[in-house]
Write a structure and sequence with these properties.
Helix content: over 70%
Order of helices and strands: HHHHHH
Distance between the termini: 96 Å
Radius of gyration: 31 Å
Shape: elongated
Largest sheet: none
Number of strands: 0
Structural class: mainly alpha
Length: about 140
């Protein structure tokens, strides 16, 4: 059976799937794949439905967080009571944290300053152990 290589390449370059081209032209998907590879066309498997939904949901979440940031920006310009300012600040902190999570950034930091931090911790642990022994003995 003769396969029209140019028809296959043209269909693939226009965005048609390999399986669709194979069905339409009456050849096997492996044949279409081989012809594509020989001509430098990279085949990428279609995303699974769950992956597509996850990516779409991610885009929607980012869009929503951006809208909320815009809304917060508008609200800052208006009159604010102390309680309103507190609520706005909390909302900003949460939104910032969530956006950083979506972006893959770190959202918590632990800082240990001073070279004697380990010694202080060890001392505190010793103090607690002494208290426990005293409590157990009584």
């Amino acid at each position: 059976m003769s396969v029209d290589h140019s028809a296959i390449l043209e269909a693939l370059q226009s965005g048609e799937s390999q399986n669709s081209v194979a069905r339409r032209l009456g050849c096997g998907p492996a044949t279409v794949n081989r012809i594509a590879k020989r001509n430098g066309l990279e085949y990428t498997a279609p995303k699974h439905a769950a992956e597509a939904r996850r990516d779409y949901a991610f885009a929607e979440r980012i869009q929503l967080v951006n809208k909320l940031f815009d809304k917060l920006s508008e609200m800052v310009e208006g009159p604010l009571t102390p309680n309103g300012l507190q609520a706005l600040s909390i909302s900003f902190g949460i939104l910032t944290d969530k956006r950083r999570l979506e972006d893959g950034d770190v959202t918590a930091r632990t800082e240990v300053t001073g070279g004697d931090a380990r010694e202080r911790i060890a001392s505190k642990l010793d103090e607690l152990a002494t208290r426990r022994r005293a409590t157990d003995a009584a």
